[in-house]
Input
Amino acid sequence: MIGKLLKAIDEKNAPVVAGLDPTLELIPDCIKDAAFKKCGETLEGAAEAIIQFNKRIIDKIYDIAPAVKPQIAMYERFGLPGLLAYKETIDYAHEKGLIVIGDVKRGDIGSTSEAYADAHLGSVKVGANEFVPFGEDFCTVNPYLGTDGVKPFVDVAKRCDKGIFVLVKTSNPSSGEFQDKKLSGSEATLYETVGDMVEKWGEELIEDGYSSVGAVIGCTYPEVGKKMRERLPHVFVLVPGYGAQGGTAEDLKVFFDKEGRGAIVNSSRGIIGAWKKEPYKSSFSEEQFDEAARKAVLDMIEDINKAIGR
Output
């Protein structure tokens, strides 16, 4: 799967992923009003607003962005209707040729982790029939439980030509409370140790120089990005933290290799909420939220490519 992602990035010259993390506050009234008229001010109405919002944005960015990353929590909060909207978003993105990174941050042990992996990357058998529950191309994985929690995802990724991104150094301010601690008897921090394991877990899934077992490293910690880019030569990096969380294009340079490869940068609110913020608010009306999102993606691509010399 990493080969498909690398190809999509090269074809569009865009090492970016649009985070589809909708909240009702980010959805314009024109979309919500229509959804509530159809379904009422209900969970179903919220889910209807989400899927119509997402479809409009996907329609405007599928030709310039290689991937989208829906964050499942933003859908789960609306219960079963929200999860249906999550699935419909995945399917619609695939119809438009986009790669889908499911930001689900799953991870457990044994049969539980296997069930998560089957749900998001694999398939399930029901009698004589086989079904794909969600069907993401990649999903994010929490490594806190160790190899027992990650290996089922690696196994399914290998079997089904999918990929994962393991949380290594996250972009949030308190990540260092655990991730920066040095392990007993070692000079390595927890995030360095997890990164080394990511390199090991993915050694059988390398394609075009990078593995389908990647890492999540926030661009709010560029010194970590530089260190881990050198330390993990085959690990492709999903980089959150650009824009709304304070990360800049200059911070991003160290996450890429000398050819401008090896990473993809996420922006969520900066894209789907662009219509509410300057400079886009002055140029686009509420009804043009999707046009604002497209312009935000184009600006992000230009900003990042300029910084990394791509």
Observations:
- The chain has 13 helices and eleven strands.
- The mean pLDDT is 95.
